[in-house]
Specification:
The protein has a single domain (88-392), classed as pyruvate-formate lyase- activating enzyme (Alpha-Beta Horseshoe), CATH 3.80.30.30. Helix 10 runs parallel beside helix 11, helix 11 (267-281) packs parallel to helix 13 (331-348) and helix 13 (331-348) crosses helix 14 (362-369). The two termini are 34 Å apart. The radius of gyration is 20 Å and the shape is globular. The protein is built from 15 helices and 18 strands. By secondary structure, the protein is an alpha/beta fold. Strands 4-5-9-10-11-13-14-18 form an 8-stranded mixed sheet. A 5-stranded mixed sheet has the order 2-1-3-8-6, with no helix packed on it. A 3-stranded antiparallel sheet has the order 15-17-16. The structure holds iron/sulfur cluster. The site of iron/sulfur cluster has 8 residues, from strand 7.
Length: 393
């Protein structure tokens, strides 16, 4: 870790060494808030035991967990250190909130909680979630019951399921232990694959065997410049890749997400260098898919970023509103960026790795890959095929 990173991590406080806190962001938590009716749930008791001396407040069900926070969006900085343990009273499994105008991958979101203890300047959750604090749902019997029903109802459908839509899949895992349970659950489900997506490195409690290739361990990657300047409290590139290599050695299939790709001085060499490093440290044969997504944002996010990260220049580039209301780089600009990354990936990737765009239009697909998803049976079918190669490898 550089001196800067040491200073950054030390200034923030939390449990464990500065290095521990960057690898395992659950160590940044400053307190737990537990809904009264959840206190006796088995998972709550496990979490409290693992949390050691973290201060605990019991709050009434449906009560206001943290009334004394600064006004939004500054409240997000404090909220990232407060973990609320409660009950999910809605559905756990839902289709990804994609839009019809762009090619989406038909992902199912497993809603395990919301918010993230890491702090990426570009994070969409800053403008998307209603609460500044972190939430985790402890009624996991309901979660597994809902999964049982959903998978049994459509035995012919492959469910690609991810927990990393409203939170980071692994950020709180040392406390919750949920991923290990999900990995074991998925191992004998013939019509589902789970993707655990993270910028943290929390592996010690994961099962090295018995997953049967049905869980894909995934990391978000970026140029080291973006990672260093805009992804606060996250593990650095080599640490993420070493973790991925360890998972590959345990037989887990891997995925990587270059999202958001951000235009910045030196971007081209920055992204090429990350891709080269990826293939130096990680076996190409283990990678089932790689997604690419250029930076896009809801209008409300710009205000949050300028308020919380006043020196962040990336939000002041040239953008055009898309059909989904999000701002994007102009299409020729996105195409050029993708061409660079796809060219570098093509030098190293295994033939079975599916490289795809997250939320792009057919014109971009055609200009970069020379085909559209429809030509290959649709993006969901492409990813389903890739997930089957994972089982064979
Ligand atoms: S790691 Fe992901 S969820 Fe967490 S702050 Fe960064 S972008 Fe948001």
């Amino acid at each position: 870790m550089s001196n800067n990173e040491h200073r950054r991590a030390a200034a923030i406080g939390g449990h464990g060494s500065p290095r521990d806190r960057l690898q395992d962001p659950s160590r940044r938590l400053s307190s737990l808030l537990v809904e009264e009716s959840c206190l006796d749930l088995p998972l709550t008791r496990e979490i409290l035991a693992r949390a050691g001396d973290l201060p605990l407040t019991v709050i009434p069900d449906g009560g206001e967990p943290a009334p004394d926070l600064a006004p939004y969006p500054q409240s997000l900085t404090q909220g990232k250190r407060l973990l609320h343990l409660g009950r999910n009273r809605g559905r756990f499994l839902k289709p990804c909130p994609a839009t019809r105008n762009y090619r989406c991958c038909d992902y199912q979101v497993l809603n395990i909680g919301a918010g993230c203890p890491m702090d990426c300047a570009y994070c969409i959750l800053q403008a998307y979630l209603n609460n500044p604090w972190l939430s985790f749902y402890v009624n996991i019997d309901d979660l597994f019951h809902e999964l049982d029903q959903a998978l049994a109802a459509k035995p012919g459908q492959i469910f690609r399921i991810g927990t990393g839509e409203f939170t980071d899949s692994m950020a709180l895992d040392r406390l919750t232990g949920l991923s290990a349970r999900l990995i074991k659950y998925m191992a004998d489900k013939p019509n589902a694959v789970l993707e655990l997506k993270s910028k943290a490195v929390v592996l010690d409690h994961l099962p090295p065997t018995g997953h049967r290739g049905r869980t894909i361990m995934a990391w978000s990657l970026n140029s080291t410049e973006v990672m260093h300047k805009l992804e606060l409290h996250t593990a650095d590139l080599d640490t993420r890749l070493q973790a991925a290599a360890r998972c590959a050695a345990w037989g887990y299939p891997l995925a990587f997400h270059f999202d958001p790709i951000i235009h910045h001085p030196g971007w081209e060499e920055g992204y090429r260098a990350t891709i080269r490093r990826l293939y130096q440290l990680v076996p190409a044969v283990s990678i089932v898919w790689i997604s690419l997504g250029a930076f896009r944002f809801l209008p409300a996010l710009k205000e949050v970023i300028t308020s919380r990260f006043p020196n962040a220049n990336f939000i002041h580039g040239e953008f055009v509103p898309g059909l989904d209301g999000k701002f994007r780089y102009f299409r020729p600009h996105r195409t050029r960026i993708y061409q660079v990354l796809v060219e570098e990936l093509a030098r190293h990737a295994a033939s079975h790795t599916c490289t795809y765009f997250c939320m792009e239009n057919d014109q971009v697909w055609q200009d970069v890959f020379g085909y559209t998803p429809e030509d290959k049976g649709g993006l969901p079918a492409m990813l389903d095929a890739a997930s089957r190669t994972a089982e064979k490898n």
